């Protein structure tokens, strides 16, 4: 059955699936190529008649994840220039103004798209939420730093999508005054920047950050990747020079430069540039991480077994980790290998400790930890595993979660996310001096106060 909705740029035709209205591939900005390449997002042109919105729109230019991650995190490749598009799942426009959730996908700012089956918004709409998922520019197109182009173009795309939500979501039954942004990994890092960006002020009320703390860098640091690419391309590190190069060639060189980097071990990559006029965080937050984030990168690659005692010591010296930290972590994990110890410490340094610091710094936050362990490849509670539970979409999370993940855990997490979007209360006490953390696990979830606090204090002291 066809459904028609009227946006400010023209009418769109969606489809009714199992009682949920679905609109896909709606453009929120002009195609970022041709005259708009390496520029801030430009307004989309109005259209006459009714635009079909039955299929997902084009994805941003990218390459698949390197093997073996490509088997665990599938990619979608949809060709076309109109990659600045979004999708809407809604119970309909006849039930009053409903809470809105806007999903920002992860992928190290160089992978991912909103069209993954894992991100299907049916369960959110079923439970009374208008779910929006967005595409934004990735890699050098979105986050390459040049002297003749605006910084953070991918972030500007996200802001343009949020402006579209403000201006149009009422036509889909959503409340533009009750918007929650949520994202995982690079999507959460993006939200960390949106929280303090003056341009995003007033566009959302609440934020959920899954496995990605705020992280921005100086312009000089962010420019290094484009400089490395320019050196291989034998061209100046300018937007004008890069725009003259075929997109596929740029992606090839981008993969050569950043393809082996990951969030735990580092390496050349793409980052959000710190805004000089960043403001205070005003939104209510739901933030957290998975217990064994590092295993997504360390286990499939074999790094967890390759790291020996010497490599561990050298890595800790490079990271300026206090000597007592290794003794502390080893005493709590007597059977852990050097690779596991390095991964545990890196997870706390890069994710869990920053999450706690962010919770300490804002007016209201709720903190969670995802602890259920998958049996797939001994990945345990690894990075990205929680997404299928949050979306209550376990049938599309088998690559990481396996064939029989616990539905009751998906029920609990999804219910908490919906409640937070609707009311600001996910169902447990806000962060305070007792450091309450909702630990999601099966069988049974519950609040733990100050989990592994002695270990996390190592990184708090190091940050001062």
Give the DSSP E fraction (strand runs of 2 or more residues). 15-25%
Largest sheet: 13 strands, mixed
Radius of gyration: 22 Å
Q: Tell me, what's the shape?
A: globular
Total strand segments: 15
Can you give a write-up of this model?
The chain is an alpha/beta fold and 464 residues long. It contains 18 helices and 15 strands. Strands 1, 2, 3, 4, 5, 6, 7, 8, 9, 12, 13, 14 and 15 form a 13-stranded mixed β-sheet that branches. It is globular. The mean pLDDT is 96.
Layout of helices and strands:
Blueprint: E1 2-7, E2 10-17, E3 20-27, E4 50-52, H1 69-72, E5 85-90, E6 98-104, H2 122-126, E7 130-134, H3 139-143, H4 153-168, E8 174-184, H5 186-196, E9 206-210, E10 216-217, H6 219-222, H7 224-233, H8 239-243, H9 247-258, E11 272-273, E12 284-290, H10 295-298, H11 303-306, H12 309-318, H13 323-332, H14 338-361, E13 365-370, H15 387-390, H16 398-401, H17 407-423, E14 436-440, E15 446-449, H18 453-463
Parallel strand pairs: 2-4, 6-7, 6-8, 8-9, 9-12, 10-11, 12-13, 13-14
Antiparallel strand pairs: 1-2, 2-3, 3-5, 5-7, 14-15
Helix pairs in contact: 7-9, 12-14, 14-18
